[in-house]
Amino acid sequence: MKAVQWYEKASNQLPEEEEVKEALAEAWYQQGTDRLLAKHYEESISALSRTIELSPTHVNAYINRGVTYYDQKEYAKAIVDYTRALRAKYPFSAWIRVSVAKRYLNRTLHHKMRSSGKGCFALIITVVDPNWQWKL
Fold it and tell me: Does the domain formed by 2-89 have CATH 1.10.540.10?
């Protein structure tokens, strides 16, 4: 906790210093991870959220906050954070490929649903990505 306090003071005095901001984000990340391991979930979410405020591309902060939500059975929030971790880590071209793959998956599932008369795949896709929509 002392490291966080020290970096907060430095950040307030030198708000432009990117190195101080990164060090502060890392201190909050360590605190959030420690709180997660101790199963102090609310404190973990708070610290990891502060990490993300300071460093929006901190992949591990999104992952650990997702784990925290998962442990609390808040699966939708966990999926959102896992997706944000992917977006922070991988370039736009990777997401284009994901979109293309989803389109082909959509066509395949649609064909299977029409031929089998079953709609169970819609539930699976909704759980995996609630924002994904069928395009018939």
Answer: no
Q: Which tens digits make up the pLDDT trace of 53-105?
A: 999 989 899 989 988 998 998 887 888 888 888 888 776 655 666 666 667 77
Q: What's the DSSP call for residue 119?
A: -
Residue 127, number of CB atoms within 10 A of its CB: 11
Per DSSP, helices labelled H in 90-135 are 92-116, 120-128
The domains of the chain are located at: 2-89, 92-128
Report residue 131 CA to chain centroid gap.
15
What would the pLDDT profile of 123-135 be if each residue is shown by its tens digit? 455 445 555 555 5
